[in-house]
């Protein structure tokens, strides 16, 4: 087995991970689990890494994610271990909580549209879109998919990954001649078995042994070692001995434990760099709300999260998804008793969406309207979550799902109340249809969305009145509470019970003669309309809208400055990329020595002109002369301690060498001071002459004067000037010929007048 250095290579940084894993951020997973947190470093870890990564993107409020947590934790313990690194650094398991707003942009960038989502990133992945979706809800199926993905990386596998393909007969015969291991364990198995590859990955961190597999199709080896049952293991020693492995049970763990107990087989001592644990956001002191009140803070938090985070997972909004968003905003603006600035924003947002329902809408444009970027009116929506009645005992409990239920209960009741007052005439299923569209196209917990869609298909069409809409949503909410009671997603301090409780509504539940508890529908309807009335909305814990407006103004200004800076950086990067297209050619003598180096410029790219500020070039000449280029090949040779990480640098001699100096020194007899003195009289700095190519030690005087005459103009400008001069000369010449001929004709007429 090749020794592993434990280094993880990522662009611009080398990270050494703890054997127990980097502590994960606060969320579903605890710090003692062997998982890596992607919070704040998803790009640097997943892209360009010499390891493969299997990432779970989840939302801490998602009930399905909480149910899946046990499977993911068990997989992490199985392939990542606690005391040993197990399959690391060939593959790492990591997590990211997309419910954290600081992570929402990252989740959107990686194309996460539902929770939980698992993606496998191969080694040296270049783009966020390189992640391949992985499906499976058992440890066994996920483990097998990891192996399948590792085997697919034939062109650029993780350097630390052991060989997973079957060993050939010549390779087996010459193994100890080409490797320094003391032992070779060979497991004979069926073609579709995974045990041989699993044991090979289990032993990845151990020195002194290598594990390979032989499949049933390799009849030559099967017959040679007289294998009749599968799996069967053989242990080859460097001293030439061959013995059959008897682990007691033909299982993965039995083979692994036996091989780890062999003399000389051990994990090398690692000195990992300890990374500081990110404990995540601190939980504020719990608020004690009144259960009899509905808090506007919860309703505004639901709107903020649904419009900025949930909708923000989609870069482009079109078709049915855009229509569902427009309908959602419409019912909220019509029936939510919002504060004045929020009502103005919702009306503007709906008008903007309605004008674009048949086109494609970029979320960035939608977000600009949502953030009132132009600030042409007093309109604002809080940019933070602030749960009061929906606050859970921990950040991952309740929160957004609770506030979304509250919002839609409020909308169904207010639609009915406004119809009673004859303010509007809403359709009976208007609010429920908008809720159905939002949950179907935007709600992150996809299993939850599918459950709600099934309930809607089953009975939503039976709703005929606005009061029936109130009752339908209440009944479905209680059905969901009953199904999820006692589940992992339940907050122990707020158990899922049938609502309203007897404490809230003593008359809503009645006992029959058989002691069965039933609902009293008239009293339930009265309670719903009272509880979700305008008068029962509490404004406690709200931030004043003028304060929010000022905060939004500052955020927009900061965002504008950042956008300008980003644009400038993009332009600068583009210029640098164009400049880096310059290549250096080399000419070698028979002895292989470099004889001359000159700069070659692509013909299809315009020449870069020196900066004309203070008549100085962008980079001082002396600094440019001294600039050296780092030879990455020789640098990498000493960086990676493992043989497997050095393989890519073995072909160094076949690559083009980079010159160490950008410019050759000036010739000794060139009198720079004299030339500078003459040029200064003409207002031209001599440093314009220093970028001219020096060929074979001779000064290219023609090139120097051409460079001086250009004066900062491009060659296209000079070509146009020459063309214009030529055309002007030809025009003058034509006029001269015309006048000469005309003069001759006039003279003939004068000398020889006609009779």
Automatic annotation (TrEMBL):
Pfam families: Evr1_Alr, FAD_SOX, QSOX_Trx1, Thioredoxin. Its main location: secreted. Residues 554-608 are annotated as: Disordered. This is Sulfhydryl oxidase. GO terms for cellular component: extracellular space; Golgi membrane. The keyword Glycoprotein applies. The lineage of its organism: Eukaryota, Metazoa, Chordata, Craniata, Vertebrata. The keyword Acyltransferase does not apply. It comes from the Eukaryota. One of its GO terms (biological process) is protein folding. Residues 554-604 have a biased composition (Basic and acidic residues).
């Amino acid at each position: 087995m090749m020794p592993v250095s434990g280094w993880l290579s990522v662009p611009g940084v080398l990270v050494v991970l703890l054997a127990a894993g980097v502590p994960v951020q606060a969320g579903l997973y605890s710090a003692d689990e062997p998982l890596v947190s992607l919070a704040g470093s998803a790009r640097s870890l997943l892209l360009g890494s010499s390891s493969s990564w299997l990432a779970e993107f989840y939302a801490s409020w998602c009930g399905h994610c909480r149910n899946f947590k046990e499977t993911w934790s068990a997989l992490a313990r199985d392939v990542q271990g606690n005391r040993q690194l197990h399959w690391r650094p060939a593959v790492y398991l990591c997590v990211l909580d997309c419910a954290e707003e600081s992570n929402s942009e990252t989740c959107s960038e990686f194309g996460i549209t539902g929770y939980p989502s698992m993606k496998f990133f191969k080694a040296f992945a270049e783009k966020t879109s390189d992640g391949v979706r992985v499906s499976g809800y058992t440890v066994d199926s996920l483990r097998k998919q990891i192996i399948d993905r590792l085997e697919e990386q034939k062109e650029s596998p993780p350097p630390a990954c052991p060989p997973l393909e079957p060993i050939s007969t010549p390779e087996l015969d010459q193994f100890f001649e080409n490797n320094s291991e003391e032992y070779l364990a060979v497991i004979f198995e069926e073609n579709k078995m995974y045990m041989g590859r699993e044991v090979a990955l289990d032993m990845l961190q151990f020195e002194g042994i290598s594990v390979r597999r032989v499949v049933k199709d390799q009849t030559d080896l099967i017959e040679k070692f007289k294998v009749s049952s599968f799996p069967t293991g053989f242990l080859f020693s460097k001293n030439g001995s061959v013995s059959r492995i008897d682990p007691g049970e033909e299982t993965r763990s039995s083979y692994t434990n036996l091989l780890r107990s062999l003399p000389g087989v051990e994990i090398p001592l690692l000195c990992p760099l300890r990374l500081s644990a990110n404990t995540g956001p601190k939980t504020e002191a719990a608020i004690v709300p009144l259960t009899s009140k509905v808090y506007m803070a919860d309703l505004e938090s639901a709107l903020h999260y649904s419009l900025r985070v949930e909708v923000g997972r989609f870069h482009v909004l079109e078709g049915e998804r855009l229509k569902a968003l427009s309908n959602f905003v419409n019912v909220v603006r019509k029936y939510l008793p919002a504060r004045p600035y929020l009502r103005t924003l919702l009306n503007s947002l709906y008008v903007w969406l309605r004008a674009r329902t048949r086109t494609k809408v970029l979320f960035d444009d939608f977000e600009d309207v949502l953030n009132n970027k132009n600030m042409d009116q007093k309109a604002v929506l809080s940019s933070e979550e602030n749960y009061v009645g929906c606050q859970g005992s921990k950040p991952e409990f309740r929160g957004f799902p609770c506030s979304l239920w509250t919002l839609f209960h409020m909308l169904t009741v207010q639609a009915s109340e406004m119809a009673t007052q004859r303010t509007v005439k809403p359709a009976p299923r208007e609010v429920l249809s908008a809720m159905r569209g939002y949950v179907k196209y935007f709600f992150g917990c996809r299993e939850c969305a599918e459950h709600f869609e099934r309930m809607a298909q089953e009975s939503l069409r039976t709703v005929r009145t606005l009061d029936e809409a109130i009752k339908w949503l209440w009944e479905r909410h209680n059905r969901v509470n009953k199904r999820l009671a006692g589940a992992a997603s339940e907050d122990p301090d707020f158990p899922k019970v049938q609502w309203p409780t007897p404490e809230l509504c003593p008359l809503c539940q009645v006992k029959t003669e058989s002691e069965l508890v039933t609902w009293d529908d008239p009293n339930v309807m009265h309670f719903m309309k009272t509880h979700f009335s305008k008068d029962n909305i509490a404004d406690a814990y709200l931030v004043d809208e003028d304060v929010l407006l000022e905060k939004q103004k500052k955020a927009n200004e900061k965002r504008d400055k950042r956008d300008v800076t980003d644009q400038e950086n993009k332009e600068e990067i583009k210029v640098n990329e164009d400049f880096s297209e310059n290549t250096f050619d080399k000419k070698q003598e028979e002895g292989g020595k470099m004889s001359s180096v000159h700069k070659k410029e692509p013909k299809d790219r315009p020449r870069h002109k020196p900066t004309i500020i203070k008549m100085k070039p962008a980079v001082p000449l002396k600094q440019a002369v001294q600039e050296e280029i780092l030879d990455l090949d020789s640098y990498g040779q000493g960086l990676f301690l493992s043989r497997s990480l050095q393989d890519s640098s073995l072909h160094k001699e076949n690559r083009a060498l980079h010159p160490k100096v950008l410019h050759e020194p000036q010739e000794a007899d060139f009198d720079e001071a004299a030339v500078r003195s003459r040029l200064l009289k003409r207002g031209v700095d001599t440093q314009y002459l220093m970028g001219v190519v020096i060929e074979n030690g001779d000064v290219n005087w023609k090139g120097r004067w051409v460079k001086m005459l250009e004066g900062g103009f491009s060659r296209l400008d000079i070509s146009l000037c020459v063309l214009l001069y030529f055309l002007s000369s030809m025009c003058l010449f034509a006029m001269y010929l015309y006048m000469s001929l005309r003069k001759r004709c006039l003279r003939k007429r004068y000398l020889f007048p006609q009779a």
